[in-house]
Amino acid sequence: MLSIPASRPNAYTGSPLDRVSGRRDEADFVAAQLAREDALFVPVWRSQSLLRDNPAGEPEAVLLTPATAEALRMTAGPAPAPPGLAPHGPAPWVLLGLFEEGPLKGRPVFAVDCSAAEDPLPLLSPEMGRFADLRPVAALMPPGEASLLAHARGMLHWRSRHRFCGVCGGVCEPRAAGNTLRCTNCGTMHFPRTDPAVIMLILRGDRCLLANSPRFPDTTMYSTLAGFVEPGESLEEAVRREVLEEAGIRVGEVHYHSSQPWPFPASVMIGFHGEALSDAITIDPDEIRDARWFTRDELRSIDTLGLRLPRADSIARRLIEDWLENT
């Protein structure tokens, strides 16, 4: 089995930022970036990104000035609290980094959460766009823009889910320009977590294995198998285990293809092609609704079968398309 190279970058990769991780603890540096009049802010409202259409009708990211971002943040008020607990602190912000090149080189970029606002749009002029789900349009955006929005979404999701210490239950406060959290009670430091998941296109001769999962709302969409890596397990072992558990197929050779950040909410997808050692499929009905082998010709005209492939922003789609192109 030959290794199949990645033909182009995956969606959500190609970050335009220097994350300045070595300077996040420098209070003077962070304060100076926050005070800059040319600072830019990526607003996130309930996991949605601020988007608008450019003159060509393509989606693009909207970055806010400090004044507009602060108006959104303060209007949102304190971060909401679970029932019975008081809200704490203003809506969070996070220093994402500095633009590395181009016309925005050196300008700082922050993520700002305005999720507590019932409707932030009245504070924005109509031409500033709309809050919308990033995933359906990410493949239509320049990779750097989609990466920036995904970075902001992922960090703010983590912040919203880790307001209280997992060790003692104390309130956590931001450190390192919002990129870490410290428990105010026991002092435990908490860091953003990314869960590794393997995703694999399994091959057997001129056919590949695709499946439909009960988790998919669309019963016509067939995708690659995937699953989280377990403790004490290599990536290759995770590929073989997941395929055996979900489809009853043993896998031999496994070749790395590429990876993709997937902050929906907090994963990194690690893509592989693998060689099946048998044809017979035995599905786990709790995980798989249906699985079948597809030839290249069938995939090239999959719409005639009444089926469809994964969305263009997914590494699953890239694994399939790169196999199709490597005939």
TrEMBL record:
Nudix hydrolase domain span: 192-321
Entries under InterPro entries matching the protein: NAD-cap_RNA_hydrolase_NudC (IPR050241), NADH_PPase-like_N (IPR015375), NudC-like_C (IPR049734), Nudix_hydrolase (IPR020476), NUDIX_hydrolase-like_dom_sf (IPR015797), NUDIX_hydrolase_CS (IPR020084), NUDIX_hydrolase_dom (IPR000086), Znr_NADH_PPase (IPR015376)
Keyword RNA-binding: no
Catalytic activity from the UniProt record: a 5'-end NAD(+)-phospho-ribonucleoside in mRNA + H2O = a 5'-end phospho-adenosine-phospho-ribonucleoside in mRNA + beta-nicotinamide D-ribonucleotide + 2 H(+)
Pfam family, one: Zn_ribbon_NUD
Necessary cofactors: Zn(2+); Mg(2+)
EC number(s) from the headed UniProt entry: 3.6.1.22
Signal peptide extent: none
Record keywords, A-Z: Hydrolase, Magnesium, Metal-binding, NAD
GO terms for cellular component: cytosol
Molecular function in Gene Ontology: metal ion binding; NADH pyrophosphatase activity
GO biological process: NAD+ catabolic process; NADP+ catabolic process
Family the UniProt entry places it in: Belongs to the Nudix hydrolase family. NudC subfamily.
Protein name from the UniProt record: NAD(+) diphosphatase
Organism of origin: Roseomonas mucosa
